[in-house]
From TrEMBL:
Protein name: Lipoprotein
Organism: Pseudomonas gregormendelii
Superkingdom to which the source organism belongs: Bacteria
Length: 140
């Protein structure tokens, strides 16, 4: 019985591994997405106004691109009023960068200060190479 449970557990882990991120194409630049808080969501929407193929990351050709992301986050009640409930925001941000390099990994991080979302694009050396510009928010 113990062997059966162990084998089943390993098979489940192997199956889950198949749903991970695809292999990085060395002729492309890769952009990982990272939201700063646990209860938030950051999704890839568009590259140069064309729909992204996967919401978990961007893979772009070398050169200049505008990335559009969707960032969903709760606004803490302390920023709203004493008896308020958290208010959920659904925002889009544009991040422009003119020098994506083939084979390099970048990281796009997002967070918020009160009602205002922010996004920063980092290169492999953790240098900020781009900043997000808000493109509209709505309450959810």
């Amino acid at each position: 019985m113990r062997k059966l449970m162990l084998t089943g557990g390993l098979l489940m882990l192997t199956g889950c591994a198949g749903f991970g991120l695809p292999h990085h194409d060395p002729s492309q630049a890769w952009v990982d997405l990272d939201s700063q808080q646990e209860d938030t969501a950051l999704q890839a929407l568009q590259v140069d106004a064309k729909a992204s193929t996967d919401k978990r990351y961007f893979e772009v050709e070398p050169g200049s691109h505008e990335l559009t992301v969707r960032y969903q986050f709760p606004v803490d009640p302390a920023n709203i009023g004493p008896d308020a409930e958290p208010l959920w925001r659904d925002c889009q941000l544009h991040v422009k960068f003119k020098d994506f390099n083939a084979g390099e990994r970048y990281q796009l991080q997002a967070g918020n200060i009160g009602f205002r979302p922010w996004a920063k694009l980092y290169d492999q050396q953790r240098k900020v190479v781009g900043q997000g510009a808000p493109a509209g928010c709505q309450r959810t």
